[in-house]
Amino acid sequence: MSCWQIGVTEKVEAPRTLTEDLKTGIRDAYAKLQANTPGFSTRRSQSQMIGVVSRALGTGGVGVVEAPTGVGKSLGYLTAGVPIALASKKKLVISTGTVALQSQLVERDIPNFLKSTGLQATVALAKGRTRYLCTRNAAEAQGEGVQEGMFGDDVQLYDRPLAPIEMDVAEKLTKAFIEGRWNGDLDNAPENVTPTLRMRITTPASACAGRRCAYSAQCPVLRARTEVRDAQIIVTNHALLLSALSLGDSDSGQPLIAPPGEMLLVLDEGHHIGNVAIDQGAANLPLDDMAKRTGRLQILIAGAYRAVDKDKIGNLLPNEAIDVASRVSKLLKAFRDDIGNVWIPQPDEREPMWRAANGRLPESWRQPIEVLADETRTLLNWATAAASAVAKGKQDDPAVERLQRNLGMAQEMVEQQYNLWAGWRREDKEGQPPIARWVTMSRDGDYILHCSPVSAAMVLRKLLWDEVDSVVMTSATLTGGGDFQSLAIDNGIPEEAEMVSLASPFDLPNQAELIVPQFPVTPDDRERHPKEVAKYLVAELDWDKGSMVLFTSRWKMEKVAELMPASLRKKILVQGDGAKQKMIDEHIKRTSAGEGSVLFGLNSFGEGLDLPGEACTTVVITQVPFAVPTDPQTSTLSEWFESRGLNSFNLIAIPHALRTLTQFSGRLIRTSTDTGRVIILDSRLLTRRYGKRIIDSLPPFKRVIG
Fold first, then answer.
1. Which DSSP helix (H) or strand (E) runs through 410?
2. Using an 8 Å Cβ cutoff, are 492 and 286 in contact?
3. How confident is the model over 32-61, as pLDDT tens digits?
4. Residue 202 pLDDT exceeds 50
5. pTM of the entire predicted model
6. E strand or H helix at 515, and its extent?
7. Residue 163 phi/psi, 5° resolution?
8. Which of 620, 558, 461, 383 is nearest to 1 (CA)?
9. What digits encode the pLDDT tens for the residues 452-466?
10. What is the rounded CA–CA span in Å between residue 554 and residue 438?
11. What are the residues whose beta carbons fall under 8 Å from the beta carbon of 598, sequence distance 6 or more?
């Protein structure tokens, strides 16, 4: 969805109730789960979660459950969700924020649940098209440069031709798929796939001929989507979920995942959904690159008219369509001067950026933006009509299929441009946060134009809360301190939603300590803070056990690693020095052998990492992870709050910090026998007014403050 499409709709539906039969089915599933799962322990918090999920999915409502580590979230929502889905003939859709959890659900949690309960249900994993091999494109890639397209239009949209080694990889992948040694999922490809090759051997929705393609019988995408449509339980990711709901992504008129009204939706790792929704509503346009690519469309346009043998496509004659593409290309080039009149990046800027204060663009830009939006809309209409017309033609002609693919790419390229211009010219609604609008400069000097909503609320209200049958949002970290107000505002959660923060099943006050020492310098002292962090780690870390040190910037992480003495440096594994999983495996190998090992990591190490026992006995957080105030979306939203007399720091920075700190702290206690300490090296928690609020909201570890 582009940032100009956000709106609000109403869902009107007769209420339904959680029947006694459904309650009985859920109780039976839970009883069998207990009886048939070795080592199963009854947890009050898990039973509470089953109740919330049952009420939400059973009545067409919304439930929000903060469930700390140890609650057993997946079994909680499966115990309620699977019986309700089977009884109601609706689909249980589980959407996650990470690939790791998707794999865990499909390969372990769901099969184990079905086996233990005896329930019968089909399961499928839903991924985007670019995760799968397109056998048609792969066949062409193997002979790239050898054959010429009938219309001479088959290479001009690409940045460079494939290298011989990439063509060889395409051949090996095709062979592995045809021989049944691989299912076409590029995430599990038996060969290394470069970004350029991936673009060539996959197909966007607009370029796919579907069942009419000559290769459809052996298409991995169609096979995977058939499995998804037939499945009763579907596992997907937040980005694909929102894309499918927003675009109505479909084949042969059928929804990709499920019709919203037939979807019982669980948002696991629900704390990610807001950022994904904002990305879904965003648009960007690299100015020089788009001008160049749009200028190349002339050959493609001529080829489209020859292929369909019509005087007009989209109400335009050939010369008229070519003129539109030429005008758009020239207008894009000219807009570079408009930007230069307002902003000239400084030569020493590391990441040059200009942001429109309060989302309001310069008045001098209004007229060129209006013209570009109108002209791009005309070109988009033509590209859509051309792609449709060519798709109706002869499907067993390789040249026509290449033309269709390139028209699909052109359509997506022009749509990307239109979404940006439409977002830039849209009037912001009174009483609602404005769209963030900004410009960055790439390393090669290209201006990149951006627009993005600053809040997920409008996007999620339109796509989820007002459309999907019922929704459960869950995560170990939704609030930070059990206060749902910030989460509800940020995500537009309906007022009638049931929101519950569950207690940890672990004895946290006796298993762990939260230590906030009197640290000598604050994190904003760029030179001294890394030195003091390094000194503290040398003196205080137990170097014979497993520890994790979390940073908010790569520069500081690498600086502290540099400052460590050589005798200890060899025990440190720094994120970025190798593949993440290999690093974690090495850490576990060391700690399992009784050796000391310390992981230095950024945000991605602070979430989802499961290091029980001796693998993690200390978590050091080098500073409170406040939202970056220079981020254009955050800055624009802050301005809007301040203009209304509200404190943006309290409304944005502190809730974000609380959620992230709670996630980081959650790396420590993973089982009922784990012990350890969380140390925060940020003295602002002892001196600033917000410090007590943050400390009081963190998990109930024993406090050692100051």
1. helix 398-425
2. no
3. 999 998 888 888 999 999 999 999 999 999
4. yes
5. 0.86
6. strand 512-516
7. -80, 155
8. 461
9. 999 999 889 999 999
10. 25
11. 537, 541, 543, 546, 547, 548, 549, 571, 572, 573
